[in-house]
Each structure stands twice: as C-alpha cells, then as structure tokens.
C-alpha cells in the first residue's frame, strides 16, 4: 500500500478516525451523485506552469472570480489567487478484470472490511472502529475531495461481481508545482489478484498522458516490499528515504519516495505505465 493523501479536514493528517468524528467541509449533499461535483464539470485548461491536455477528465481551472467589494466600483480582490475548481471523478476500465469508479454509499461493506485490517486505519481515515455513521462520513469525504478540487478518489471494483476491493486516489495539492501523488490500499479479499498493479497502472497512465501531470510520486514504508515491487513494475523509481516523514498510528515513520516523470523513458525495457 502506498500512503494515501490525508483527508482535507482539521485535526491529525493520519491515524485512526473515531466513530464520533464529524464530517467537515461543505461537500455534496445526500442527493448529489457520488463522485460528481455540484454543477457542470469544468473544461480542461492550463494551470500555473502546467498544461492539461484535451483527454478525458477535467483539469484544474482558475476557479470563480471573487466578488466585488460592496462599497467600491472596483474589484478589490482581483489579484487574489484563485482556488481549485470542482472535479468529476470518471469511471475507467483497469483491464478485463477490474474497474475504477467514484465512491458510492453502497461501498460501506468495503469500509467495514478495511476497518478490520490492522494497517489500513493507521495510514488512512478509515474508521478504526466501524459504524455505519462513520463509514458514511468517510464516503462523503471522498465526494468532498472531488467537490473541492483536492483530487480524484476511486473505488477499485472487481468486474465479475462488481464487488469493491480497494481504493486509489490521485491527489492534486502540489499540482501548481507540477507534481501530484497517488495513494492506494487493498483489503485482504482483493489481494493476490493483480488488482493493485492494474489500478496503479491505469491511474498513472491517465495522469501522465491525459491530464499531462509532469511528475507523479508515491510514498511507501521501506518494509512494504510488495507495494514497492508493484510501483517499480509500473515504472516508478525509488528516489530516496524520507526519515520520520509520516505519522502512522502513534509514531513517526520513514517513507521511501518513488517518482515517475512524464518525460521518463522506458524502465527496464518496458514502456512507462504501458496499458
């Protein structure tokens, strides 16, 4: 598992989420389709120092212009930096056996299984003690990530029975600097089937070639050799060790950083993030 991007909310950036923790941020209402931001999807356009292509999936736009000062005829905030626009999470095939789609409220069984895992609640905001209320808040936070332009959260679904078995996200916090990060996790029932590799390859290819993100990065604990092998197989290259990089449970832990550039050539004779 690669360390996921923390949820955009107050409090600790990682670690267990208590059952009573409130869901913060505006987010879509209960009648908003999952993964869909309110209103029409923004058109792809150039951001600061970064050009988005015309492929599927919206880019980050400039956001709505601040309103004018009520006591002035001029736009007092005309030079204020624009915020990210809402994003629409697409559905994508990850090969013949798996697919990626927006989170749905029907995914509560996946949250329940993830909450029982000894590691997933430590590096995500999956509730450490499951309750329907906490699980529903977790799903709404995934919708809120897209609605606030923080990134694209996907549920990973097995094609033959439509069962969700994991999650992967493309997080855009550092996109103005030309980089984005990917985090993913898989429950026990989905492991050993090539799910993670297929999902990571799909999101990586989409981000590099359709969204034209210049750099992607992953953060993996050094002991997690299985996840490291998957990242390297997709084309990521280990670049170094970040000491005490992330809070995992009640301790600071090292993270190995893996990077992949849009301009990278083949790694070990294989095309980068090939389909």
Question: Can you offer a commentary on this structure?
Answer:
The protein is an alpha+beta fold. It is 20% helix and 21% strand. The protein has an 8-stranded mixed beta sheet with strand order 1-2-3-4-5-6-8-7, with helices on both faces. The two termini are 21 Å apart.
Short description:
It contains 5 helices and 8 strands. It is of the alpha+beta class and 275 residues long.
Topology, please?
Layout: E1 92-93, E2 98-101, H1 108-115, H2 120-123, H3 132-147, E3 151-158, E4 164-171, E5 179-186, H4 195-210, E6 215-220, H5 225-234, E7 237-248, E8 251-261
Parallel strand pairs: 5-6
Antiparallel strand pairs: 1-2, 2-3, 3-4, 4-5, 6-8, 7-8
Helix pairs in contact: 4-5
Task: List the main descriptive attributes of the protein structure presented here.
8 strands; 275 residues; globular; 8-stranded mixed β-sheet; 5 helices; alpha+beta; single chain
